[in-house]
Structure formats: C-alpha cells, structure tokens
C-alpha cells in the first residue's frame, strides 16, 4: 500500500471515529440538559412562570438581538452583563437582604458581621442549590422567600428593558436602546427565560455527584455540580470550579506537551529525508493561464469582499464606541436607528461573510484554472450565485433590523428576523437560501474539476480530491445551522451552533485552504506534487485529529456532563499541537517566495500567507489555549480575553488567508496590469500592526483585569456596569483607537489597490517572464 493510500485510509478512519464520538457526546448533552418545567410554583401553589412564559421569553430575547446584547451562560456580547450571572447574583442578594431584615433590622446583608454573613450564606446555598424539579409533574417549586426575591428581580428587568427613567443610566451603560423590548407582556416573559437560565446555573443535577474519582470520605458530604458545572463563579451560592475542571485542565496541558513532542520527533525524523532536488521553472507557469469567462466573472466577488470588509470595519468602530457612549455617537442618538445589538450582529456576520465569499470565489476561480475546462453555463451559475449572495445579505440584514427595532411580529422572527445565536443570526429562510447557494457552489466547483478525475492517475489528483471533498463538506456541513427549531432546547442549539462555527468555519475551510495553497505552489512548480500530496494529507490528519472533538471545548457550561468536558479538554489541547510547528511552514513559504526571480510577482500574496502562519501560532495557538482548558474558560468565558482570541484567530488567520487567496486570483485576472506594490505594502503592515495593537493595548489588559475581578469577586462583577464603567476601563477602550485607525488604513489601502486594477489601470510594459519593480 502506497504512502498516499495509507494516509487516505488513516484520514477516513479518523473522521468516522471522531464524528461517531462527537455524535455520542451530543446525545449525552441532550440527555443531561437542564429540564424545562411546565410550571414554576411557589410553596403556596401560586404559579410564577409557565413553560409558555419561558419559551416566549426566549423568543423575545432572540428578537432583540439575543447573544448580541449581553450573554447567556457566557456566550454572546461583552458590554451588557451575562444575564444568567446577573440574575443569579441579584436574586441571591435579594434573598440575603430579606433575611438580614427579617428580625426588623434595617441593615443589608453587606452590613452584617462576618459570622452572620457566613450563616446566611450557608442557608442560601442549601436553598438555591437544592433541586426541586419534579420529573413526574414537570414542575419546579421555590420557597416563598425565593419567590419574593424573583418578583423583585423581575421588576428590575421589566424596568430595564423598557423606558423607565429609573434605569435609564443603566441602559446607557449596557448600550441598550430605549424600549429594547416593546411591551410589558414580552418583558415579563423575558424575565421567565432569564430566571430559568440562572436556575440551571445554580441547581445541582439530580442524583449526580461531583463526577470525580476521589474515594468517599467518612463524615463528608460528596460534592455535586449544577447543570452548568458550577458556572458562573458566584461565591454567594457556592458556585466554584468542581474538582473535575482542575483535573482535566492539568491533563490538557500534558496532552499538549506530549503532542508537540511527538510531532517534533516526527518532523525531525522525516523532514528532508529522501528528497531529491526539485527543478524550478524558468518562468511563471501561471503567466500563460487562459482566463475563462467564468473565471473572469469572479472579479465581482472580490469587489463584494472588499465592500463587506470595509463595512464590517465601520460597524466594528461603531460597536466599540458604544462602550463609551452607550446610546449615542458624539451626541447623535444613534441607538434610535442602529442599536448596539444590531451593529454587533452585522459586524460579526460580515466577518464570516466576507471571508467566506473570498474563499467561495477562490474555489470558482481555481477549479477551471486547474482543469482548463469551462463547463457549459458555468459563467451563468457564477453570476446567479453572486446575485443570490447579495439577496441573502440585504434580505437577512433587513429582517434583523425590523426584528431588533421590534417592528417585525414575534411569530415571524425565527424565519425572517433575528435568531439571536452569535454567528448564526440569520432568519431560517435566509439560512435555507444560503444552504442551497452553497450546494450550487459545490456543483459549480465539482463540474469544473471533473476532467481531472476522469483523466489519468496522478499525484495531483489526490490533492484535487481533498480540495473537492472539503468543498462538499463546506456545502453540506452548513446544514448544521438547520438542525434546530424555534423551540429546541438551548443546550441542543448550542451543540449544533458550534458545529457551524467550529467545524464549518475553523475545520473544513481550513482543509480547503490547505489544499488550495498546495495546488497553487505545485502548479507554480515550486513543490513536487508527490511531496505536496503527502504533506497536505498529513497536515489534514493532524489538524482534524484535534479539530473535530475539539468542538466540545465550547460546550463545557451549557448543561454538559463531565465526560464530555473531559473529551473537550483533551482534544482541544491537541488542536494547538500542529500550530506549534507553523513557524517551519512560514519559513518554508518564505523560501518559496525567493526561489526564483519571477516569484517576486507573488511577494505580497506570500507575505499574507506568512502572516497566516504567525497569527495561527499567536491568535489560534497561544491566545486559544489561554482560554481553552476547562478551568481557564470557567473564569474567562465571555470576558475580553475571548475576543482577543476571536479577533486574532478569525481575521489574523482566516481573514489574512482570504486576502492572500484574493491576491493570487487577481494575479491571473489582472496580472497584465501594473501592481501598485506600495499600497500592498502599506496594507500588509497596517493590518498586521493594527490587529496587534488592538489586542495588546485593549483586549489583553482589559481581559486580564476582568479575569482578576471574576476570580476575586465572582463572574457577575467582572461583567457589571460597576466594573465596566471604571475610568481605567474607559481609558483602555479609547486606547483601541491607534490600532483601529491603522487597521482601517490597511483595509482602505487594499481596497484602493484593487480598485486601481480596474479604474484607469496601467498595462505592465514588461513581457512575460519579466517582473515589475517591487518595493523593498
């Protein structure tokens, strides 16, 4: 059996096994999810909430922006509080204050002596952690004291989400528009949903111990964990990291070290072994590439990419400014027209949309370029798909505006408005439209590649096969966004949502990009096809070994059993292993860029590829593993250390990769024109330095301060207005400006460079084989 066949077999076995385990983990999550009661009762039998209240409350939460305004169980935006943690702390404080005044005193809990505080806190923990869910009657019963506290907290939220002047200052601090939720009925339903998420976070799983291997100790009560594995950190109710989080965090570090050591040994043993000198072509093989009509039609995709990119940056600036002026922009009441939750929705969605569009366009361009075949009606398909993408963006965003502005009736929100799930916010109608569009893209790419598969056997056929399989996976796996319904349990929604975010974006797009890069360098004659074939398959195996089950590290605190936490901790550590050796890949790419004089034509695409390797190590590797272990994420989830990883990994890796692919395609489309490499140089360094400043000056120090606050005082405090309105926090937010401005300059320079290739371009006077002067 050849090495290639062995690697294909290993990849197939790995994927089948990994997805089988991932599906099993999903079943465990669904089984262990917090129950949804039919009724919530007070001790006297009074009905406080019904299941209909809770489910309608979730619909209301989704329509106002959902995870784009505050967060639930740590997933979502960062300016407003985590509503689960906020409700939990407010309810606990209400009960304690009530008890402190029970003997006629006028003091609050905070004013009591330490001994009395400890006694009341112990009493509170026994009451709030007790699981009173009746699986037969499907009811939850709470004490009269707790019912009174719930009523007071609910009144606060009804005021906050309306236009009550008493909470106007808090709304501004949370970047909430006036009348965030339009009616009192909907506000009350919203409180039911918030209460249920807080109840799950403080209620111990029925009949479950602390999920540790520690033997029983005489006279000691075994520890139990809540449905969210004791998340969030809240000292008042006894929410502290369970022993299992400590254990599996330690093991994740061990797995990381072991994985790096094994991969290092493999690299040392195999690198350069048996390789023969590879002759490099005397001229650019792509210089004589025949540009087909469908390839030429992809140009408009690249224009759209740049338009979406610039719009995303503008919305990011607006989103960041809302942290300083919660409802205005330099005195203008912007929240009346573009609320924070909507600006952030479009900002996060556009990040995925422009990067994905760049990669879709690359697939449509590269397929005919590789095969030399232009299928019938291919250009029509490319143009039809482009129009469809425009309709999805405009239609989906319009529906979200109507939803957040509380104009769209609630019953239509799921299909045409705002689903409220971060990165999966599009209404279901638009998700179906996008899914059908992706299947069309798979068809267009596949039919253009078909002659390669029908041709004689070759090493390149294996890489093209991997390219096409990743194309199919990109199209098919978007179906994970269609796996939940309007009333599906939130734990199940989160499971499928992370299939979309982690596997679709971070998984199969990564394989697609790896295959495209290998095919580009082999067609340029810089790498032997047989060598690239083995390298790409091996890299895919290494990445997917941790990537598939690494999805579970996003799900530690959504109602997940400890067995799934253990899997997520172990395999998310393995995700970082291949990133540790990307420095070698970056050096290899840099050498290819200097392999022959004509490669100077590809200097800046290669430089962007090198930037991908750098940010893969820093953004995905260092900052990713900073938050991935269970114990780390217990405190860091939803703090500014999370967007530190998100920004440097999403743009630093996938954004830079998208730009690199665009530039390679443009070399074919507009390579006969003079390239203003000064603009590319300005764009490259501005984007990279701006991204670094954004992280170092704001996100890293602010996230670290929040982490210390969460460890010392509880998670609620690190997300509270009291903390986020401190002068030092406001200063750190303003310190984003240098990085943001520099980053924007880089984006404008890139857009100007591409624009000049079509607007008043200058034809390159040099002949084929000659290279324009490149700025040092």
Topology:
Blueprint: H1 3-32, E1 39-42, E2 47-50, H2 51-63, E3 71-72, E4 75-76, H3 83-100, H4 114-129, E5 133-134, E6 139-142, H5 144-160, H6 168-173, H7 184-202, H8 243-270, H9 293-297, H10 299-321, H11 340-371, H12 378-404, H13 410-416, H14 428-454, H15 459-477, H16 490-523, H17 529-547, H18 562-576, H19 582-593, H20 603-627, H21 630-636, H22 641-669, H23 677-713, H24 715-718, H25 721-724, H26 727-734, H27 736-758
Parallel strand pairs: 1-6
Antiparallel strand pairs: 1-2, 3-4, 5-6
Helix pairs in contact: 1-17, 2-7, 3-4, 3-5, 3-7, 5-7, 8-18, 8-21, 10-11, 10-27, 11-12, 11-14, 11-16, 11-22, 12-14, 14-15, 15-16, 15-17, 16-17, 17-18, 18-20, 19-20, 20-22, 20-23, 22-23, 23-26, 23-27
Walk me through this protein's architecture.
The structure is a single chain. The chain is mainly alpha-helical. It has helices spanning 3-32, 51-63, 83-100, 114-129, 144-160, 168-173, 184-202, 243-270, 293-297, 299-321, 340-371, 378-404, 410-416, 428-454, 459-477, 490-523, 529-547, 562-576, 582-593, 603-627, 630-636, 641-669, 677-713, 715-718, 721-724, 727-734, 736-758, and strands spanning 39-42, 47-50, 71-72, 75-76, 133-134, 139-142. The strands form two sheets. The protein has a four-stranded mixed beta sheet with strand order 2-1-6-5. Strand 5 (133-134) and strand 6 form a beta hairpin. Helix 11 packs parallel to helix 22 (641-669) and helix 23 (677-713) runs antiparallel to helix 27 (736-758). It is globular, with a radius of gyration of 27 Å.
């Amino acid at each position: 059996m050849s090495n290639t066949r062995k690697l294909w077999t290993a990849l197939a076995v790995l994927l089948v096994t990994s997805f089988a385990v991932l599906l099993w983990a999903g079943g465990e999550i669904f089984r262990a999810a917090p129950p949804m009661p039919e009724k919530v009762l007070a001790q006297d039998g009074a009905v406080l909430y019904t299941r209909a209240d809770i489910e309608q409350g979730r619909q209301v939460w989704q329509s106002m922006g959902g995870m784009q305004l505050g967060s639930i169980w740590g997933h979502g935006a960062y300016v407003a509080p985590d509503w689960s943690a906020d409700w939990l702390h407010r309810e606990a404080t209400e009960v304690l204050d009530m008890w402190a005044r029970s003997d006629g005193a006028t003091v609050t809990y905070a004013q009591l002596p330490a001994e009395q505080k400890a006694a009341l806190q112990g009493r509170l923990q026994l009451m709030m952690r007790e699981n009173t869910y009746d699986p037969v009657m499907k009811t939850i019963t709470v004490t009269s004291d707790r019912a009174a506290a719930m009523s007071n907290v609910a009144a606060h939220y009804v005021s906050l989400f309306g236009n009550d002047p008493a909470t106007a200052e808090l709304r501004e601090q949370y970047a909430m528009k006036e009348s965030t939720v339009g009616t009192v009925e909907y506000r009350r339903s919203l409180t039911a949903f918030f209460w249920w998420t807080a109840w799950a976070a403080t209620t111990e799983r029925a009949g479950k111990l602390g999920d540790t291997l520690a033997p029983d100790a005489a006279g000691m009560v075994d520890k139990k964990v809540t449905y969210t594995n004791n998340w969030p950190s809240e000292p008042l109710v006894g929410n502290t990291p369970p022993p299992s989080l400590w254990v599996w965090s330690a093991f994740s570090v061990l797995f990381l070290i072991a994985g790096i050591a094994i991969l290092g040994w493999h690299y040392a043993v195999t690198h350069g072994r048996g390789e023969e000198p590879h002759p490099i072509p005397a001229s650019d093989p792509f210089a004589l590439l025949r540009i087909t009509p469908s390839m030429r039609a992809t140009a408009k995709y690249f224009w759209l990419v740049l338009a979406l990119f610039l719009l995303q940056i503008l919305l990011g600036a607006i989103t960041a400014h809302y942290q300083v002026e919660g409802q205005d922009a330099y005195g203008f009441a912007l929240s009346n027209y573009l609320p924070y939750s909507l600006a952030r929705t479009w900002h996060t969605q556009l990040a995925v949309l422009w990067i994905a569009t760049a990669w879709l366009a690359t697939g449509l361009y590269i397929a005919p370029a590789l095969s030399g075949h232009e299928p019938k009606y291919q250009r029509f398909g490319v143009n039809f798909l482009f129009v469809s993408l425009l309709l999805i963006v405009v239609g989906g965003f319009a529906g979200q505006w109507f939803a957040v502005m509380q104009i769209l009736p609630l019953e239509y929100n799921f299909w045409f408005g705002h689903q409220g799930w971060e990165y999966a916010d599009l209404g279901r109608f638009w998700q179906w439209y996008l899914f059908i569009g992706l299947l069309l893209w798979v068809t267009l790419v596949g039919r253009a590649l078909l002659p390669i598969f029908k041709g004689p056997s070759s090493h390149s056929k294996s890489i093209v096969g991997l390219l096409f399989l990743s194309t199919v996976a990109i199209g098919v796996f978007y179906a994970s966004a269609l796996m939940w319904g309007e009333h599906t349990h939130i734990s199940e929604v989160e499971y499928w949502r992370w299939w979309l975010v982690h596997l679709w974006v971070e998984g199969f797009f990564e394989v697609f990009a790896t295959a495209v890069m290998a095919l580009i360098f082999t067609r340029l004659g810089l790498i032997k096809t047989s060598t690239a074939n083995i390298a790409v398959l091996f890299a895919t195996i290494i990445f997917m070994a941790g990537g598939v089950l690494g999805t579970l590290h996003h799900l530690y605190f959504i109602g997940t059993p400890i067995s799934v936490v253990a899997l997520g901790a172990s395999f998310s550590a393995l995700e970082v292993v291949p990133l540790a050796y990307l420095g070698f890949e970056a050096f290899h790419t840099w050498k290819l860029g200097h392999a022959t004089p004509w490669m100077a034509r590809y200097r800046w695409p290669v430089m962007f590829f090198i930037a991908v390797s750098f940010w893969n190590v820093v953004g995905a590797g260092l900052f990713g593993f900073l938050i991935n272990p269970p114990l780390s994420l217990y405190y860091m989830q939803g703090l500014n250390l999370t967007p530190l990883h998100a920004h440097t990994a999403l743009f630093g890796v996938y954004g830079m990769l998208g730009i690199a692919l665009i530039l390679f395609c443009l070399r074919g489309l507009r390579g006969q024109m003079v390239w203003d490499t000064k603009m590319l140089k300005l764009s490259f360094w501005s984007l990279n330095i701006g991204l670094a400043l954004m992280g170092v000056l704001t996100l890293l120090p602010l996230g670290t301060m929040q982490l210390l606050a969460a460890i010392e005082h509880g998670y609620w405090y690190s997300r509270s207005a009291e903390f986020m309105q401190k002068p030092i926090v406001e200063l750190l937010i303003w310190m984003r400006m240098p990085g943001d401005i520099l980053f924007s300059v880089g984006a404008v320079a890139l857009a100007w460079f591409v624009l000049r290739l079509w607007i008043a371009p200058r034809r390159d006077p040099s002949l084929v084989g000659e290279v324009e002067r490149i700025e040092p």
